[in-house]
C-alpha cells in the first residue's frame, strides 16, 4: 500500500496517511480544470476526429488548517524496517 505525505508549507500542517486512511478520505480534494492535450485533428484518411488525451494533474488537497492547496508526496518505505539508529 502506498503511503502519502501531505505537508503544508504555509502553516506547517503535516499528515502521513495511505489511501484508505479515514483522515485522508475526509480531506477536501481540490478539483482542477482539465488541460486539453492539444487541438483535435481530423484524420485525412478516415475523416475521423482525433482528440488528444488531456494532461494528467496531481491530486490536490485542501489544508484543514489554513485552506491552502497541498499536494501529496509518495513516501518510500524502508522494507518495513524502522530506522533504529541512535
Ligand atoms: Zn496549511
- Structure summary, number of beta strands: 7
**Main β-sheet: number of strands, strand sense, barrel status?**
5 strands, antiparallel
Task: Decide which structural class fits the backbone.
Answer: mainly beta
SSE pattern: EEHEEEEE
Distance between the termini: 28 Å
Fraction of residues in helix: under 10%
| 3D shape | elongated
User: Gyration radius, to the nearest Å?
Assistant: 20 Å
The total tally of domains equals 1
Q: Which molecules are bound in this entry?
A: zinc ion
- Please list the strands of the largest sheet in the order they lie side by side: 2-1-7-6-3
The DSSP helix count reads: 1
Strand content: 25-35%
Low-confidence stretches: none
- The mean pLDDT is 82
Secondary structure blueprint with pairings:
Layout: E1 3-7, E2 14-18, H1 22-26, E3 29-30, E4 41-42, E5 49-50, E6 60-62, E7 69-75
Antiparallel strand pairs: 1-2, 1-7, 3-6, 4-5, 6-7
Bound molecules: zinc ion (ZN).
Zinc ion binds at residues 8, 10-11, 13, 63, 65-66, 68.
Amino acid at each position: 500500500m502506498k503511503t502519502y505525505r501531505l505537508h503544508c508549507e504555509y502553516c506547517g500542517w503535516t499528515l502521513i496517511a495511505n489511501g484508505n486512511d479515514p483522515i485522508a478520505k475526509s480531506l477536501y480534494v481540490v478539483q482542477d480544470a482539465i488541460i486539453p492535450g492539444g487541438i483535435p485533428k481530423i484524420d485525412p484518411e478516415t475523416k475521423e476526429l482525433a482528440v488528444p488525451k488531456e494532461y494528467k494533474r496531481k491530486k490536490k488537497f485542501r489544508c484543514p488548517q489554513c485552506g491552502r492547496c497541498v499536494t501529496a508526496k509518495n513516501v518510500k518505505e524502508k522494507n518495513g524496517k524502522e530506522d533504529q539508529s541512535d
